[in-house]
Amino acid sequence: MAISREKYFRERGKDLRKAATHGRTKTWNVQHIWDVHHEIKRRIFLGQKNVVIAAAVGRSPEQVSSVRNSPVIKRELEIMHGAKDAETLDLRKRIDKISLKAHENLEELMNTGKVMGKEASVGQIIKSSESALDRAGWAAPKKLQMESTNFHFTPDDIEKIKKRAIEVGAVIDV
Fold first, then answer.
1. Residues in contact with 161: Cβ distance below 8 Å, sequence separation at least 6, in sequence order
2. What string of H, E and C letters represents the secondary structure of the chain?
3. Backbone phi, then psi, for 14, in 5-degree steps?
4. What angle is formed at CA 21 by the lines to CA 17 and CA 27, rounded to 5 degrees?
5. How far is 144 from 142, CA to CA, in rounded Å?
6. Quick check: 66 and 29 in contact, CB under 8 A?
7. Model confidence pLDDT, tens digit, residues 48-99
């Protein structure tokens, strides 16, 4: 019994799944920023994924992706990131300034027993100064890791160690 190739492998014509989109693209760019775009932009800035944003604002992940990739939103996100970076730099400058003052307070307290010419609660001044120094990167070590090993030697062992040290030249005088 011969099986006809045409029965199973006949030509069906052009595969329309890979056909051109007739010059149109399936994506769209944001021209005007509406409230939903602001919400998507805010959530992108917070670091949320497209799927999470889409579920929250009632859009498809593809639409959120199009908004994320549109030039208008990209430009706004760059501005937002620049503002965030500027705030971080300003905060760092303020912390550096405070840490200098904290260091001066500690020095004055240690030298005179007073701070800014006034008697003050020593505990409060030290605590606030150390806190400011911690923020500036001058924190005291919080954890010390130590190892110790104990050896028990007999008098014969000690003599052998001394002889070996003399032979090697590690001991000048015994």
1. 153
2. CCCCHHHHCCCCCCCHHHCCCCCCCCCCCCCCCCHHHHHHHHHHHHCCCHHHHHHHHCCCHHHHHHHHHCHHHHHHHHHHHHHHHHHHHHHHHHHHHHHHHHHHHHHHHHHHCCECCECCCHHHHHHHHHHHHHHCCCCCCCCCCCCCCCCCCCHHHHHHHHHHHHHHCCCCCC
3. -70, 140
4. 110
5. 7
6. yes
7. 999 999 999 999 999 999 899 998 999 999 999 888 888 887 888 888 888 8
Show the tokens assigned to 61.
Answer: 């992940």
- Do the Cβ atoms of 76 and 61 come closer than 8 Å? no
